Amino acid sequence: MGDNVWGGGPKFNARWLPANGWTTCINFSSLGNLVEQMKDKKIGPGGVDRLGIVAHGDAAGLVQLTGKYIPGAKDLTVANRQYYAKDLQKLKSYLAPSGWLIFFSCVAARGRAGDKLLGMLSRVLPGRTIVGFTTFGFVPVHPLMVNPLAAGDVYVAGFDRSSNPAHYKGKPRQTIWTASAKWAKNGYIIRQPADELKAYQKRLPDKRCGSVFCLGHARFGDVCTPYKRHPERDFFHAFGFRPMPIPDGAYFQPSQGGPKRKPGPVR
Q1: Domain identity same for 265 and 135
Q2: Do 160 and 86 belong to one domain?
Q3: Between residues 197 and 44, which one has the greater pLDDT?
């Protein structure tokens, strides 16, 4: 049994206490600093079963892992993946082969931008499940960081931001099973929030081929190219989740006898 590490990122460097199944708490200033502190705590290779990171994610496809918001510079995004390449490889050595990396970062996983971010991370960290959320979260932290907080105390705030703590009273904690949780593994979105799934299906109604990965096609007669099978597919599909490929990697081709069309990304 490995460690369940709770990481309080910039602006969330509160006094976190182990709770809710999280066994080790670390306050960090950057992803590299988080990795160094895990080393200092004598966590061995593959010793982290779950890593939860609390950081701002005020826009889809973006996690603010540095203390100051600098657009396009140091935030964790698909465009900045090379900036984080070394730190992600170091982090990979600490995560168990089937471990979980969970970003409690508001709406970082929302929409297509969120799909691409989680998909990129799941390709860099194969075998691990990457989780993000499509709703804002709320941490009941004192402005001066004087109150201790229980690890895992991040609550579902909703689709819109609110600064009134009363709006969050009675709301559930964010977990991997929250309705707004989105999962990616090995380059695939394997759990899609219901609201987004319905939106995709409404935009492309009844034009899905027989592949369980299919998002839908622009017209009848198009079919998905074969996808590499992976063990998660049958399991999640059996429970009603529809695994889907990362949009940029989803291609279709005309079926036999169908209209000839150059393969391209599903729009």
Answers
A1: no
A2: yes
A3: 44
